[in-house]
Amino acid sequence: MSDTYYKPLKIAENIYHIYEPGNVYTTLIIGEEKALLIDTGYGFGDLAAFVRTLTDKPLEVVLTQIIAAAIMNFRRFI
Q1: N or C: which end of the chain has fewer CB within 10 A?
Q2: Rounded to whole angstroms, how far apart are CA atoms 72 and 4?
Q3: How many whole angstroms separate alpha carbon 46 and alpha carbon 5?
Q4: Strands, DSSP E only, in 1-78?
Q5: Which of 63, 65, 64 is nearest to 76 (CA)?
Q6: Chain centroid to CA 38: how far?
Q7: What is the pLDDT of residue 22?
Q8: 10-30 burial, b if ≥16 CB within 10 A, otherwise e?
Q9: What DSSP element (H or E) covers 47?
Q10: pTM of the model
């Protein structure tokens, strides 16, 4: 998988929409003590490793929907 599979779009200080091919976005909010990832995308790339390029803070993950693709990528975070 290419290093450019995910593309971070900074929308505010410490807030990123992370683009994945297929018009899929996840959102990363980096707080003072920890970070929050909202959704996990399709699961074709290694989103967990990509998020670690943006922050090293402890990470919490929230899914807004329970579908096969989200569950497949969620496993990388547990």
Answers
A1: C
A2: 20
A3: 9
A4: 7-12, 15-20, 24-30, 35-38, 59-62
A5: 63
A6: 7
A7: 87
A8: eeeeeebebbbeeebebbbeb
A9: helix 47-51
A10: 0.85
pLDDT above 70 (res 26): yes
User: How large is the average pLDDT for residues 14-40?
Assistant: 95
Residue 32 has φ and ψ, to the nearest 5°, of -70, -35
Contact between 15 and 36 (Cβ < 8 Å): no
Per the listing, tokens 């980096």 go with: 30
- Other C-beta atoms closer than 10 Å to the C-beta of 5 total 15
H or E element in which residue 71 lies? helix 68-74
Instruction: Provide the 10 A C-beta neighbour count for residue 57.
Output: 15
What are the backbone angles phi and psi of residue 63, rounded to the nearest 5°?
-100, 135
